[in-house]
Please model this.
Amino acid sequence: MKIANETKVGILAAFSIALLIIGYNFLKGNAIFSNETVLYAKYSRVDGLNVSKPVLINGYQIGRVDKLQLQPDGTILATLKIKGKYEIPTNSVARLESIDLLGSKAIIMALGNGKIYAKDGDTLNANVAKNLMEAVQPVQKKAELIIDKMDSILTSVNAIMNPDFQKNVNKSFNSIAATLGSLESTSKKVDHLVGSEGTRISAILANVESISKNFKDNNVQINAIMKNLNTATDQIAAANFKQTIDNANKAMNELQGVVSKINNGNGTLGLLINDTKMYDNLNNASKNLDNLLIDLKENPKRYVHFSVFGGGNKKDK
Model:
């Protein structure tokens, strides 16, 4: 039976289309004739993740990323196609990680320990691992701190290498050496003193110990004596204060009595203050005495008679 050319062309075209579809899916990583399990994972961000990126378990590829879809809440839903049948626990984590220094991404499947396994269409837990730059940032900050400290250390070293500083350090060491020498000399003197006066020091310590023991043994009596002293001191202070107050009250009463007598005109001072006649008499007597003294100065012969040779006395006789 002869096949028509049109039939041959149709068969060839169909075979070419099928081959093209198979080749396209092969290049995309889709297995046309193999059994695949479809799983899903939702990520907050997918830096560097593209379709056809591998899904790995311990470095072994078990599938690939088939689709990436942006969800209304801003997350990205990744469709993972797993080739063959693998027991993946439902508590496994599909972690997005960098697989090289260039930042190429892949889905690393961290298998859980559950006994229930994921089925076709299940959604796995997902997270995003830190990329290289994010992982390096803490180290970079620590390195910057270390560099700053190294700079401070180098600055200090430069200051130490300064000749003036070295001279000061040498002087300090010399002073320290001299001080240590003095301490050593003092220590030797103390050792000699302790050796030569050891007996006396032992006796002094024994006396101090004896005194301490006496104080301890007579602690009750000492406390009683101190209590009695405190009581006596309080009584003396109270007695002296009371006596002082009594004397002050007595003096005030006597002063008040004197003032009352003066106000009542009793006594000379009272009469002098309250009796105007007595005051006038005293005033007149004072004036008369003053006039007498003036006249005595002006006319002394009127009151005093004397002779140089004593003749006057004989004549009077």
